[in-house]
Design brief:
The chain is of the alpha/beta class. The protein contains twelve helices and 20 strands. The protein has two domains: 213 residues, UDP-n-acetylglucosamine1-carboxyvinyl-transferase, Chain; 179 residues, Enolpyruvate transferase domain (UDP-n-acetylglucosamine1-carboxyvinyl-transferase, Chain, Alpha-beta prism), CATH 3.65.10. A hairpin with an 8-residue loop joins strand 5 and strand 6. Helix 3 runs parallel beside helix 5 and helix 5 runs parallel beside helix 6. The longest helix is centred in the first third of the chain and has 13 residues.
């Protein structure tokens, strides 16, 4: 199903954000290594976490993680170290195009038995769990941080622990720090010194754990605050002192005219109106999941920008750099792109009279473009169910905030 989206003039609302899927998925892996002694509280209800939970069902020999890239990386490592357990991990056709060779090679070097079932270097995988040796391992720092986190979380159960060296400049470092923070909560204290991380052999200790709200989901409410005529948006439970690197949102949206106010029970967003600069330049190496929200917000706010550090966007749910260029062209914005950069200097093309946004089976495309209704009333978002991957009640929350979302035929209002 598709939605046409109509935005209110003003947005005065309070939104309970979903739990962080990044934290939920890490906590589930570590809790499983503990033997599931104490259930994790406030787990995300999104598809990515749901397939992770299903993967731990006893007797499941084939695990279909659908489009959940985090689950693919984390479960590959988890089952590689689960001695005597044999399973196959597969996913959608898009998942079968997303590379996993670097992680598989790393696990094999530590003693894992993993076989490709179709194309070399890509899922699906057949895994026979073994005790891994551990020891010294070197990885390029510019690979997905999910590879690194997957290895770090199972490292205590390797015979010699893990001494991981990252070569070059690491990307998405906050996600690595998030992993190490959750590991410490469960009793394993790693030592990180620059690009070197040492994890001792040992085991996790069961401990109560509650997942905090998702800062990535908060980004769409920052976008709404930026684009609405007036806005006052309360986000209870959200803390600027967070495990999540995307908490940098508060600083990233300040130049776009959104103020963040800390309250006793969360944060509150309002418009500041301060957007005076010639070009917004920012390195998003550590916050790549915010790129779509920031790019769309800046274009619709007529703020020229140059965002760098986007090298991982090519291998996400879709090629997000290409998708942003194509969909923003429908709205009249001509972007320039390279492998790790997106920029807009004010160049325009003829906008479509009734734009229909293709989501490419990518939840963040749908959620980042829906607020464009402030500038393009009635904009159509295709395949609205894609938001289930991370924010299942996104459309309900938009309605609560005053948006109107009449359903449209599957094909949209225009080809």
């Amino acid at each position: 199903m598709n939605y046409q989206v109509f935005a209110p003039d003003n947005c005065q609302t309070e939104i309970v954000l979903p739990a962080s899927k990044s934290i939920s998925n890490r906590a589930l892996i570590i809790n499983a290594l503990c033997g599931d002694a104490i259930p994790v509280e406030n787990l995300s209800e999104c598809d990515d976490t749901r397939v992770m939970k299903q993967a731990f069902d006893k007797g499941r020999d084939t695990i279909d993680i659908h489009g959940a890239g985090t689950a693919m990386r984390f479960l590959t490592a988890f089952y590689a170290q689960k001695q005597g357990h044999e399973c196959t991990i597969t996913g959608t056709e898009r998942m079968k195009q997303r590379p996993i060779k670097i992680l598989v090679d790393a696990l094999r070097s530590l003693g894992a038995e993993i076989r490709y079932l179709e194309k070399e270097g890509y899922p699906p995988l057949h895994i026979l769990g073994r005790k891994l040796s551990g020891g010294a391992l070197s990885l390029p720092g510019n690979v997905s941080s999910q590879y690194i986190s997957a290895l770090l979380m199972i490292a205590p159960y390797m015979r010699d622990g893990l001494n991981l060296s990252l070569t070059g400049e690491p990307v998405s470092v906050p996600y690595i720090e998030m992993t190490l923070g959750i590991m410490a909560h469960f009793g394993v204290q790693a030592n990180r010194n620059g690009n070197s991380i040492q994890v001792p052999a040992g085991q996790y200790r069961p401990a109560p754990f509650r997942v905090e709200p998702d800062w990535s989901a908060a980004s769409y409410w920052y976008e709404i605050a930026a684009l609405a005529t007036n806005a006052k948006i309360k986000l209870p439970g959200l803390s600027v002192k967070s495990l999540q690197g995307d908490a940098r949102l508060a600083q990233l949206f300040e130049p776009i005219g959104v103020s963040t106010h800390v309250t006793p029970d969360g944060i509150e967003l309002s418009k500041s109106g301060h957007t005076a600069f010639s070009i917004y330049e920012c390195d998003l190496t550590e916050q790549p999941d915010l790129a779509q929200t920031l790019v769309v917000t800046c274009c619709l706010s007529e703020i020229p920008f140059r965002f760098t550090g986007l090298q991982t966007l090519r291998i996400k749910e879709t090629d997000r750099i290409a998708a942003l260029c194509d969909e923003l062209a429908k709205l009249g914005y001509k972007l320039s792109a390279s492998d790790n950069t997106l920029e807009w200097r004010g160049d325009t093309v003829e906008p479509q009279p009734h734009p229909v946004i293709t989501t490419y089976d990518d939840h963040r495309m749908a959620m980042a473009f829906a607020p464009a209704a402030f500038c393009f009333p009635g904009i159509t978002i295709r395949d609205i169910a894609v938001v289930d991957k991370s924010y299942p009640h996104y459309w309900d929350d938009l309605r609560k905030a005053g948006f109107s979302l009449p359903a449209q035929p599957k094909g949209g209002t225009t080809p």
